[in-house]
Structures are given as structure tokens and as C-alpha cells.
Amino acid sequence: MTSLDFGSAARSLARASRLRGLVVPVFASPPSRPDLHRSIRRRNGSPVVSIRLRDRPRAAVLADMIEGIVVANYLEGARADLVRSALWLAIDGEGVEGDAGELTLRTEVVETVPPTPPQSNAAAAA
Q1: Torsion angle, CA of 85/87/91/97, rounded to 10 degrees?
Q2: Cα–Cα distance for residue pair 70/52, rounded to 1 Å
Q3: In the list 58, 60, 89, 90, which could disulfide-bond 16, CB 3.0-4.6 Å?
Q4: CA-CA distances (angstroms) from residue 87 to 83, 95, 104, 115, 117?
Q5: Interatomic CA distance for residues 62 and 87, integer angstroms
Q6: Could you give the percent of the chain with pLDDT greater than 90?
Q7: 33 Cβ neighbours under 8 A, 6+ residues apart
């Protein structure tokens, strides 16, 4: 991934994060420690996510960026999964950008109605 691709992805993720009311971290490269692929720190209350680009697949860099947003916002469980999915849509182009903003969890409510007991012949004849 080039630094231009990194910047473009950062802008797309920032826009999608703001639409969801999330804190947008500052993205930087590379991390200060050479043994890390990703680090997150807070400076004056603002999260800074540093990611190593060199010799890494694009998908790994993007996954680190998305996870940086999740960690920076202290997201967990279903909310974290929903945000990850929406952010992937924002950068993968699997849907129009408006679709990513409308991503919701779908829940089906199924009502079970007990079966009606069969009527006897005498009740049916009446």
C-alpha cells in the first residue's frame, strides 16, 4: 500500500466514522517501535493510530486502520462488529456510500401460534 492509498483510506474511514458519531483518530505511519505493525496512543486526549505500511498486504493495513477506530472508541461486542462492517463497506466499495451509513442489524421476530386442535365430527356438523 502506498502512502497515497493510506491517506485516501484514512479520509474514507474518517468520513464514515464521523457519520456514526465516532471519534476519528489521527493515522500515522510507521509506529515508533520497529517490532510493531500497529500501535495506538493518546496525546492530549486524542487517539493516534500508527500503522506500518512497508511489506504488508493492503488488507492487513486496512484491517489495522479499522481496528484502530474500534479501539479508539472503546467499542465492544455487537456495536464493534457493526462498526467494523460499516467501515469495510466504506473502503471496499461494496455498496454506495449512503448504504454504509444505513447499515443496521436486522432482527426477525417470529411469533409462534399454537396449532388449533382438530374439530370433532360432531362440532363440525353443527
Answers
A1: 90
A2: 18
A3: 90
A4: 6, 11, 13, 45, 51
A5: 10
A6: 63
A7: 39
Pairing of strands 46-51, 26-28: parallel
Residue 108 has pLDDT above 70, yes or no: no
* pLDDT value of position 72: 95
Q: How far apart are CA 119 and CA 51, in angstroms?
A: 71
Cα radius of gyration rounded to whole Å, the chain: 24
What sign results for the dihedral spanned by CA atoms 82, 22, 94, 26? negative
> How much is the pLDDT for 115?
52
- Is pLDDT of 60 > 70? yes
Domains of the chain: which residue ranges?
3-101
All three cell numbers of 54: 512497508
